[in-house]
Design a protein that fits this description.
nine-stranded mixed beta sheet, TIM Barrel, alpha/beta, 23 strands, binds ligand LLP
């Protein structure tokens, strides 16, 4: 049953929460959280996760609509349980993600396994657990047929359309490794026939961080074009990819318009297909990104002829998006949100020059932040997706703890800080 969600509103924007000019999370000051749990620290607001899910579902008017959360965005079990409570399914990419979802109580039929270059062992595991495999190559389809004649299967096609916030994040088109090219329907059907497979779903996912619906609809048309040639389908899955406005200047995707367009296109397709199929999507970022913040403490101010640097106690080992893609994350002085602004470069504690959070497409950038002093807390916003899930132990630094703040302002540790012993435990 969905829990009460005080932040539920018509708008997709997330309001900033402050008290005494300090940044708060569902009413709890960043400072209080750091005193209790230490820093660096990932904080998630439960109300935002629930709000995002409900807003998304509300905008898709097509009645047979199902959301499968892309677990890769953030696999913290507490976050998964919140989405499970909301009625969400799961999109998984490894046998361990499948196992986690099953352990948490996701019904097998609510889980889709869309891995890439999967081994027979991974497929065997899914078959054993009755989890649907969404295959991404003719080779995998054939290997699946050999593992289990007559198996139910879904096929990921590459619709020849791609989009995304960075070249590493485009997953459709001829330059990407994903899916079976959309013109290979005959080969797909031949393998399906040979092994008596039951092809129940067609899937595509063109990329991530998409801020307008055009490319999505273009890919949708190719995907439904393929679906029309296949009898007996149960669903079409259009993947994830909905972006969020990381920059103040960006407008969010018009969700209402997007949901209406997708629903309208799909209804038309179903009329032509002759059956009302299920419409699936697999958002990751949209559901959890804005719910998460990485809080760190500034311990060093220094300058060079080019920049004023503020050094803090986290780094790209905890949030690699700025270094990996030049991604922009809003940064606030959580100890004094409003104040005289000063241009700084916020950098981390990892021994690489690229360990800088204020990056743009041309590398290191200055950012205007309310003047930072040593000891201040900084908040790196919109870090709930592809933050902790892409973290690592480089420089032998531990992963930070994660804390959930309830809508009522109760805080709960949902992942402990890694210890020296945790890191050493796998060495022989
Ligand atoms: N479905 C499939 C098959 C995917 O590969 C992905 C993401 C999703 C759904 C969810 O996409 P989303 O709704 O989150 O955009 N590390 C990058 C993002 C990589 C996404 C990979 N696949 C980043 O930090 O931007």
């Amino acid at each position: 049953m969905p829990l009460p969600c005080p932040l539920l509103s018509d708008s997709v924007s997330i309001e900033m929460d402050t008290q005494d000019n300090q940044l708060c999370f569902s009413g709890v000051k960043a400072q209080e959280l750091v005193e209790k749990y230490g820093s660096p620290l990932y904080v998630y607001e439960e109300s935002i996760i629930r709000k995002q899910y409900r807003e998304l579902v509300d905008q898709f008017l097509y009645p047979k609509f199902r959301v499968h959360y892309a677990v890769k965005a953030n696999y913290n079990p507490t976050i998964l349980k919140i989405l499970l409570e909301e009625g969400c399914g799961a999109d998984t990419v490894s046998d361990q993600e499948v196992r986690l979802c099953l352990d948490l109580g996701f019904p097998p039929e609510s889980i889709i396994f869309t891995g890439d270059n999967n081994t027979d062992e991974e497929m065997r595991y899914c078959l054993e657990k009755d989890v649907l495999i969404n295959v991404g190559s003719l080779s995998q389809l054939e290997r699946l047929g050999k593992l289990k004649e007559g198996a139910r299967v879904s096929v990921r096609i590459n619709p020849d359309v791609g989009a995304g916030h960075h070249s590493h994040c485009i997953t459709g088109g001829p330059k990407t490794k994903f899916g079976i090219y959309h013109d290979k329907i005959e080969q797909i059907q031949a393998i399906v026939k040979q092994y008596n497979l039951k092809l129940v779903g067609i899937h595509s996912h063109i990329g991530t961080g998409i801020m307008d619906s055009e490319k999505f609809i273009e890919a949708m048309d190719v995907t439904t074009g393929v679906a029309k040639k296949i009898e007996g389908l149960e669903f079409v899955d259009f993947g994830g990819g909905i972006g969020i406005p990381y920059r103040e200047s960006q407008s969010p995707l018009n969700l209402k318009d997007f949901g209406a367009k997708v629903s309208e296109h799909f209804t038309k397709f179903c009329a032509e297909y002759g059956n009302d199929l299920e419409l699936k999507i697999e958002p990751g970022r949209f559901l959890v990104c804005q719910a998460g913040t990485l809080i760190a403490q500034v311990n060093t101010l220094k300058e060079t002829p080019a920049h004023q640097f503020a050094g803090c106690n986290t780094g790209f080992n905890h949030l690699m998006r700025p270094m990996a893609y030049g991604s922009y994350h809003k940064i606030l002085n959580a100890s004094r949100v409003e104040g005289e602004k000063k241009a700084i470069v916020l950098c981390g504690n990892i021994c690489e020059s690229g360990d800088v959070f204020t990056q743009g497409s041309d590398g290191i950038e200055d950012r205007e932040v309310s003047a930072l002093e040593e000891g201040d807390l900084v908040a790196i916003l919109d870090a709930g997706a592809y933050g902790m899930s892409m973290s690592m132990q480089y420089n032998m630094r531990s992963r930070p703890p994660e804390v959930l703040v309830s809508p009522e302002g109760q805080t709960k540790l949902i992942r402990k800080k890694e210890s020296y012993e945790d890191i050493m435990s796998n060495f022989c």
